[in-house]
Write the structure tokens for this entry.
Amino acid sequence: MAIVELGKFSIGVGDRFAHQAKAQLQACIEAGHDGIEVIPVWNKSNREHNIIGSEPFSARAAADAAVKALGWTKPYFCDADHINLTTVDRFLAPCDFFTIDVADYIGKTAEPASIERFLKRRSDLTGAIRLEGVREPIQITPELLRATASKFLFAVQEAGKVYRKIELSKGKGSFVPEVSMDETDAAQTPAELLIILAAIADEGIPIQTIAPKFTGRFNKGVDYVGNVDQFRREIVLDVAAIGWATANLGLPKNLKLSVHSGSDKFSIYAAIFEATKDSGVHLKTAGTTWLEEIIGLAEAGGAGLALAKEIYTQAYDHRDELCGPYATVIDIDPEKLPAPSTVAQWTSAQFTSALRHDPHSPAYNPSLRQLLHVGFKIAAKMGDQYIRLLESNEKVIAKNVTENLYDRHIAPVFLGKPSPVAALAHAEAK
């Protein structure tokens, strides 16, 4: 059986209510018209399924239907997003991409004997390692090798357990494995990443993507917060480290970087493009499609605008409950959240201007945007009322979804053609 391989460029697209798959796929089709293949990967986490009350089969059904309707003949995937040993079972049948999240195990120490075996087996990593395109060699001391193994080896071993469970169910080579290391306390250095990749190779996990942590803030649905030049240095080193690992550790040749929480990180898209245009990259977005649904409803006016306002009101009233699970990836200033009574008087243009991510618009409100980003639970509780309005306003919503995904994400990251918003954000960041 042929091994399933992820293409050079791929984009993780969240579709929380499983109604925008066609609009998302259309953005990938438009990329093809511009001469580049971008593979769609529909991702939805266990937490999102639980909040909405959906099952992973719904994401697969929506993707399959979109592919059939639009005549897509290239590969596509459904991602069991941020799964672990306790949550993977429900994703086994419908998914063919598995993001194995080991964040809860980073920092837990493996058995001393297994650490010693790893140190002995990988003693060849110590010393100077030269990465292609990097002037200064990477130095790995015995002390760094031990410290990194102590911090990450147990987590990698847990990833191995999850991988083997998936492989036992689906068959070797029939799915794309990713290991996520992004939700930890500090960015991994290139030396640490090399050691982690060696541990993954030892576990026999044929990862095709890996998601390390970068410095800076990757908040939900808003721009990157941090030093762009530092990010540029980090991503260049990470890509070089991955290249060395594929050449020397027996990992798949198509292994590439995965950038998580990549939605709307306009100021670093140029750096991502430059660093990965040869090696490839997986950009994972989530939540922005849901926000484009709200924007589309507000644009439609009438019942759509009224519902968008009601969702904001309820999100405002329940903001502590909604924000709690996302506290590490949002920065909301309560003083900048408009009162629901104020929003109730807004026109369509006022609502969409506050919500749409245009940092050069004086009306744009990142605090409001982040609150609504985590407020999809409100719409989920509305059930059929929300779904009916999505369906009756499909045309205007789909236009927003496709334009957002193509113009603001695909064009700058994969084509190096920043949208006006992205270009201005990048220029300001410099």
Q: What stands out?
A: The chain has two domains: 9-286+403-429, 290-392. Residues 425-430 have pLDDT under 50 and may be disordered. Residues 43 and 396 are 23 Å apart (CA to CA).
